[in-house]
Design a protein that fits this description.
By secondary structure, this protein is an alpha+beta fold. Helix content is 17%, strand content 32%. The chain has two domains: 31 residues; 108 residues, Immunoglobulin-like (Sandwich), CATH 2.60.40.4170. 22% of the residues are buried.
Length: 162
C-alpha cells in the first residue's frame, strides 16, 4: 500500500512539473508587442550585419530592398541556416504596423511571387525571396516579426524596418 501511494505521488509530481513547463512555454509565446521608443532604436538581433537583420541560434534573416507604399509594403528576405531549424516558410513572417496590427504576407499583388516552405540547413542560404504585406499604416515603426520553427518551444524576434 505504501509503495502504491508513493508511485501515485511521483506520478502527480511529474504531471505537475510537465504542466507547469507547458504553461510557462505557452505564456512566453504570448507576450504582447511593445513598439520601440524613438529614443532607443532596436539593434540588430543577435549582432548580425548589415541591418535590418536578425540571428536566432545560428539562423539568420536579412531584409533588403524595403519599399513601403500606402497600398503595399514589399521587401526581399534572405535566410542562412546554421541552426537546428529545418526550413524557411512565409508563415514565419508577419508585419506589425504602427497601429500594432499583425499582418500576414500576401501574394496576390504584382511582383509578389508566392513561395512555399523551403527545407535547408547546415549553413545553406535561401533567397532573396520577395515578401509583401498590406499595411493599414506605413507610419513608422514598421516591424517584421520572425518566428522560425525550432521545435516544441519556438522563439521569435522583431526586426525594426522603419
Amino acid at each position: 500500500m505504501g509503495s502504491r501511494l508513493l508511485r501515485y505521488g511521483a506520478i502527480a509530481v511529474a504531471a505537475l512539473v510537465v504542466l507547469t513547463i507547458a504553461v510557462l512555454a505557452y505564456r512566453s509565446l504570448q507576450l504582447p508587442y511593445q513598439a520601440p521608443s524613438v529614443a532607443s532604436p532596436l539593434p540588430a538581433a543577435g549582432g548580425c550585419t548589415p541591418a535590418p537583420c536578425a540571428d536566432l541560434r545560428g539562423y539568420t534573416l536579412w531584409v533588403s530592398n524595403l519599399d513601403a507604399r500606402p497600398d503595399l509594403v514589399t521587401m526581399q528576405v534572405t535566410f542562412r541556416n546554421s541552426s537546428n531549424s529545418t526550413h524557411a516558410s512565409p508563415e514565419d513572417l508577419v508585419l506589425i504596423d504602427s497601429q500594432h496590427q499583425m499582418l500576414p504576407a500576401v501574394f496576390d499583388a504584382t511582383g509578389c511571387t508566392s513561395w512555399s516552405r523551403h527545407e535547408f540547413g547546415r549553413g545553406a542560404t535561401y533567397g532573396p525571396v520577395t515578401m509583401c504585406f498590406r499595411a493599414a499604416s506605413i507610419t513608422p515603426p514598421l516591424v517584421l516579426r520572425w518566428s522560425p520553427d525550432f521545435g516544441f518551444v519556438c522563439c521569435q524576434t522583431d526586426i525594426k524596418l522603419t
